[in-house]
Structure formats: structure tokens, C-alpha cells
Amino acid sequence: MTTKKSATGQGAAAPELISQRIAELGDWRGETLARMRKLIKHADPDVVEEWKWMGTPVWEHDGIICTGESYKDKVKLTFAKGAHLKDPAKLFNSSLDGNLRRAIDIAEGEEVDATAFKALVQEAIALNKLKPAKKTKAKA
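^ that's the sequence the OP posted. Answer follows.
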């Protein structure tokens, strides 16, 4: 796994900040976020963890895979390009009407199919790798 420094300027590495967030939650939300983080790392050992947007865990590989947010009643994993991913297990249950993003809301006591989730992460990475090459200006 690649480690990058946080964009917060505090000098702490993003993985450390994500671990701190999990510990601070201290309840089912922290356990859920930790479990999903572990699945992401199993799906992609080369995943890059980031800490963006004033405290949001972000997992990237050739672009954003997903973010992990915690709310009072759920943990939300938002896939940046989820609308373009196949979801045969119907994991996406939130943000279904958007043009690009899709999310998985996990409430207390809910389990996410680990195999289907890892497949979704791997598909998101494959989609990120298909990014068109940046256009360069032709020299005259």
C-alpha cells in the first residue's frame, strides 16, 4: 500500500488519520469502516489512502475508488464512478439517481457481501485505468 502525506498540512499520513477516525468513532461505525477498509486493501494491495475534504477517508488507484464517511446512523461508501460499474449483487443502495456517483449505506448490524464488494472495488480500479490519455497540443 502506498502512503501519502495528508493534504491538511498537519504532516500526519493519511492512513494514520483514517486509523484515528476509526478509533474516535469507537462504536459499530468504526468497526464497519475498519472492516470495509480491510476489504478495500484485500481487493487492491496497492491502494492509496488519502485524507481529503476536511476529514474524509478516500481510497484511490489511478483515480478515486471510493470515500468512506460516517454519520450518526450509517457508514457511507461513495464510489466516484459508481454509475458506470456493474453491480449484480445490488450493493449500491444510495445516490442511485445521480449521473456519476453511487453509494453503499451500511446501517448498524448490516453486513456487506465481501466478495461482491471486493469485485466492485476491482471494477472501479479497472475503470480508472481506462482514463483517456490527456490531449497534448501538436507542435507547429
